[in-house]
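Fold it.
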Amino acid sequence: MQLLLPQAQLNVDEHLIPTQLLRQVNGTAECGDIAALSFGAREQMGLISRLAYADLLQEAGGPTLIILDDAQVHSDQARLAQMKRVLFDAAQRHQVLLFSCHPEDWWDLGVVLRDMDQLRG
């Protein structure tokens, strides 16, 4: 969360569902419902939440595999760049499989892209 929105905090309910985003805007604390965010921002918060769950599962000794299908398609280029940093960080701790029909968005993630059509035998 700190990579995407420094100074922000995400509140979750008893079911670990994100409910509110707290952040500092021009020195003033601002609190907003997750539902009021743009679709892209909700998509980003959802991915961050999934990564946090994976961290909790790993700490409890469970295996972690994160599978993403066309993740972050509603992110603008600046936010996508930040989310790539978040994913790169998560990939240091977890196995991450990212499927996308937009490979041009992911060429700089630090791994070799694989075309699924070319993998067919």
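The chain has one domain: 9-119.
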